[in-house]
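Data card: per-record layout.
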Amino acid sequence: MLYVFRGFAGVANGGITSLSMMIVSDVVTLKDRGKYQGILGSCVGLGNMVGPFAAAAFVEHSTWRGLFWVISPLAAVCGVVCFFTLPVPKVTSKPDYRAVCKKIDYWGILAGSAAIILILIPVSGGGSYFAWDSAMVIAMLVVGGCCMLSFLFIEYRIALLPMMPLSLFTSAPICVMLLQNFFFGLVYYSQLYYLPLFFQNARGMSPILSAALVLPIPCAQMTASILSGQYISRLERYGEVIWSGFFLWTLGAGLTCMFDLNTSIAAIAIILVIQGIGVGFVFQPTLVALQAHCTKAQRAVVISNRNFLRSLGGAVGLAISAAVLQNSLKKALPPGFTSLALSSYSTPDFDTLGASPTQMHEILQAYAHASRTVFIMNVPFIGLCLLGCLLIKDRGLQRPDEVQEPVKSQDRSEDREAIEAQAEKDVGTEEAMQVDWWYKDEEVEWKTRGQQNFNSVGQSLGD
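The structure for this 463-residue chain is written out next.
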């Protein structure tokens, strides 16, 4: 039941996340979009600040079920607020829902979901819960790979309205930015999930204290998101924001590899602040950059695929991190305590283990070593995102389908005089060309009857 309803919650969360960004892109111009997307990103950071504290309080003083009883009413309140505040789109005709439903990419959704599930389960549990050479792992990987190939074929040939149009990947900047979203989603969720585990399992901190130590990331993310949005809206540039964001994020992720049992709290906070600033400079600015590189017709599908790939990266990152943590912990634990690796997410209870002080220190060192292995694994992925910036050019906040109109004179009489002068020059006499002109849709349009008059003059001369 938990998996099924968490799946429903994931579907709703994915739709809300994408729709909120689409609404912003519909009601706000691209020039001002960085500012409002920055505010939207700061709200996400604020939620990431409050959420861990609320969850830690429920874990310590109640049960994890109590947290779900709080989330559901809050979601209902948000739905009521959206019902009364969101503007109703003006449509000229009632949409044909039956025709729209026929265009939904059902086969692509089915094949893609099956591929993700069948690949992630053996990857996350391989080597710990089940052997890599077991029949189940091999079968799931083979079937998952076939489902992935089927998904690509469906998106390329069958789907009327594909959920992931492969044509998006023909543009190098869009392809690179979508892959960046996948990789930094992998790193972000891995860091956000496994840092508290390091604080609790290796450092022996309480859930409340571990939540407080993770606080520098969302706090810095919220501040940097607002500042980056203001910068993009005012200067109409995003390149240097994304570059500096990935640089700081790579630096912060690399510095987390230094965490051990003796790292000071101040050092941890400073390193996580650096990483949080990088996150704030990346999350929303990359979305603005994607919209600047695509046409208006591609906007919705780019936003949805960006969020899908970021969430997929998070799922893959958590699966890979779980496998890395469990296998590394199993090798690092002292003899006689390897069973702790079967439940690597639980804080070791030294009162029931009967371990000596030396063995307790070795167990804590093993947890620290396993967590550091996860942090090391994340560095190359975010480093690839930094290198990908070499293929992204800052094109300003101008979409490719927005063609710059020619500059027209403010005085229309001057335009007419210029046109008549050019006509007189081409024909050689004022009587040879007469100009008819008019204005339509705020654009100067003109046409001449010069050729007809020229022919009439020629006939009169011939006579």
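Known properties of this structure: The chain is about 70% helix and 5% strand. Strands lie at 435-440, 443-448.

See the next section for split statistics.
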